[in-house]
């Protein structure tokens, strides 16, 4: 048995054992190999922390897609704040709350970073284009030049393109610690850099501790949330056809659907779920539905706690988004992950197996829904009436 963390992972074994005595007991009894193996296999998706929080440390800087009006990215930030509540965020458009600045402020001011500062790059899927990776590299170089440490934490690498593998290699070479959020990301980074990064689940899993304080509000009608992402015409047509088919007649349990937007993008209409929700509502011909709210549009919640409160009203989720699948798992909801052929969705399904998680391609949504609905109804039947 060893509690020594693998290269790339920041982990305090003594603190972990003291903070989570159930894990320490399991290690002593032989039920778990080691403290660090528990953290990597279970702890990070249970919202357990790998090292003690630093509540007063305001010299921790975090870069992600924050301030872009996407609740999944804000959930990442809140997950970081479970470790560093006073962290300084580098945001893209407009910060939701807390301390922060635009990334270029750090690059324009040679005295922005100081010795002993910490720059965290991640989490989320940030390797989606060369300019973004180059920006992270520039921030890392600026921090290192002033004696600061640079960590890459829980990074999603599913979208990395060969067009900028050179910049990715340079970025990872500057990191003291480096972890990724999925086994697919682990393989991708190993192929690019030769570095085997430990897998820590997405920072949004750290919101697990919030869920018990949010009331579970079972609706009178069986309610399934639909969480969309950017869609091409073919996928949009599949979803609208599915909604038309499922909303024509009322079932005995009043099956209805609600659209939950995760992104109300400040600058990209294609990534604005509120616009897409309206398109789906019109395309589903709701004038012919059994009720106009057989498919209802719920409002965008910028704060992760508000979004989780929406999920706590659901019986199941049809999800096209990575962080929607995390929210559903936090709330213990049956989930139909749509886009199983996409690396990002496939990575979540592979890394988080569960009897409550099904997966399908978008063009197979109608066929996959029947067994999923059986699961949803079975889980709803277990809920004791108040």
From TrEMBL:
Record keywords: Transferase
Disulfide bond listed as a keyword: no
Gene Ontology molecular-function annotations: transferase activity
Domain of life of the source: Bacteria
Pfam families: PS_pyruv_trans
The keyword Nuclease belongs to this UniProt entry's keyword annotation: no
InterPro entries: Polysacch_pyruvyl_Trfase
Stretches assigned to the Polysaccharide pyruvyl transferase domain: 70-339
Coiled coil residues, start to end: none
PANTHER family xref list: COLANIC ACID BIOSYNTHESIS PROTEIN WCAK
Name of the protein: Polysaccharide pyruvyl transferase WcaK-like protein
UniProt source species: Rhodobacter viridis
Record lineage: Bacteria, Pseudomonadati, Pseudomonadota, Alphaproteobacteria, Rhodobacterales
């Amino acid at each position: 048995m060893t509690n020594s963390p693998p290269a790339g992972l920041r982990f305090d074994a003594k603190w972990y054992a003291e903070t989570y005595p159930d894990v320490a007991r399991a290690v002593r009894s032989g039920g778990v190999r080691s403290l660090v193996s528990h953290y990597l296999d279970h702890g990070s998706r249970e919202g357990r922390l790998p090292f003690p929080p630093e509540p007063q440390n305001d010299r921790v800087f975090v870069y992600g897609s924050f301030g872009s009006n996407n609740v999944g990215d804000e959930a990442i930030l809140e997950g970081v704040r479970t470790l560093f509540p006073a962290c300084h965020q580098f945001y893209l458009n407009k910060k939701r709350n807390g301390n922060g600045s635009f990334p270029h402020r750090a690059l324009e001011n040679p005295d922005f970073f100081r010795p002993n500062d910490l720059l965290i790059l991640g989490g989320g899927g940030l390797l989606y284009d060369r300019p973004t990776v180059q920006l992270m590299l520039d921030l890392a170089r600026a921090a290192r030049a002033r004696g600061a440490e640079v960590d890459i934490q829980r990074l999603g690498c599913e979208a990395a393109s060969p067009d900028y593998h050179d910049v990715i290699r340079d970025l990872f070479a500057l990191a003291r610690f480096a972890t990724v959020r999925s086994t697919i990301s682990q393989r991708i980074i190993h192929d690019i850099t030769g570095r085997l990064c430990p897998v820590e689940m997405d920072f949004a899993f750290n919101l697990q501790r919030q869920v018990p304080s949010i009331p579970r509000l079972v609706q009178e009608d069986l309610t399934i949330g639909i969480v969309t992402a950017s869609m091409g015409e073919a996928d949009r047509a599949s979803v609208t056809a599915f909604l038309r088919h499922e909303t024509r007649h009322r079932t005995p349990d009043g099956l209805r659907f609600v659209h939950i937007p995760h992104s109300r993008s400040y600058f990209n209409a294609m990534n604005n779920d509120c616009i897409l929700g309206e398109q789906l509502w019109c395309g589903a011909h709701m004038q012919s539905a059994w009720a106009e709210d057989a498919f209802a549009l719920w409002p965008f919640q910028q704060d992760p706690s508000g979004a989780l409160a929406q999920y706590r009203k659901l019986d199941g989720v049809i999800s096209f988004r990575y962080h929607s699948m995390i929210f559903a798992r936090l709330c213990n909801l049956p989930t139909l992950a749509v886009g199983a052929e996409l690396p990002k969705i496939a990575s979540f399904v592979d890394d988080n197996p569960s009897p409550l998680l099904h997966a399908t391609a978008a063009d197979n949504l109608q066929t996959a829904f029947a067994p999923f609905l059986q699961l949803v109804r079975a889980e709803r039947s277990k809920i004791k009436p108040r």
